[in-house]
């Protein structure tokens, strides 16, 4: 599985394994929440128990997501640094699947888990919840808790507690566009300089962007992905960087019990996870001859798994007898995996294909008129 090609070559190819990395990360988040939401012994899942108090499986998976997001979103801007087209592509990636998820899960929750049943859909609250969620709550700094739940539905619990990272993802898209639009150097060099500067500022000057991006951990990891993209033509991630990351983590492992959340220790855990993710993602892991693998290389189910699993788990928790972590995980995935296939093939991929075709047509028309 050792990578012999550069990160840029892997990203540009159709035989990389980044969809597998995203899928594993999404499943780790589901595992983490199954530990929290099971009704027999709520608590950390077995993987999280090995890493506490430094990290947990959910946070580690989200961290990997944000590094990969910084990597690929920066690539999108650098390939086509046009503000309007960048915005349209990003909206097409996030919003259609999210809108359908919110509409479907909200309607099921209102009909099945509210006193009024079907009549509850006549109230404005469910539709306001769907609309605000699909609009990413307009990327405001503080989302009122009342907007994250519907009164009397599932006891007034937040219907989709995992979406907070999607809102931060949207904010980071805005930052990439602003950074790119302000370029005063060649784009690759500019993005490199700004990612380094803002990563330092996130910790040295925490009030920088404090009114818009306060989540320093996720912002810094996203910036690491940005930086990796600017260096992708030189970076090769194989077994050696992974072993070095493991060695650095081992050097800090004896401090875990005494220094909770110490920055260097957290850095070590993330370094191992991100290095492994980049190594696996850059590799031709299972070869192109295995049919299920070729299918996964072309289709990304991770986003739908991530956005559907919380409401599904919440509703299962309300109807199932007491179940442990593995039963909750299995029941959730039995519903979420088919939903993720539906979401990708019927909503997300068609929306992306439509937008790409429209943008390509407009660019071709502009080029011909200019000629």
UniProtKB/TrEMBL annotation:
GO molecular function: acyltransferase activity, transferring groups other than amino-acyl groups
Record carries keyword Protein biosynthesis: no
Transmembrane among keywords: yes
Keywords: Acyltransferase, Membrane, Transferase, Transmembrane, Transmembrane helix
Superkingdom assignment: Bacteria
Pfam families per UniProt: Acyl_transf_3 (PF01757)
Chain ranges of the Acyltransferase domain: 16-338
GO biological process assignments: polysaccharide biosynthetic process
Family annotation (InterPro entries): Acyl_transf_3_dom, Acyltransferase_3
An example Gene Ontology CC term for this record: membrane
Transmembrane portions of the chain: 20-35, 47-73, 94-114, 170-187, 194-214, 263-281, 301-320, 325-344
The protein, known as: Acyltransferase family protein
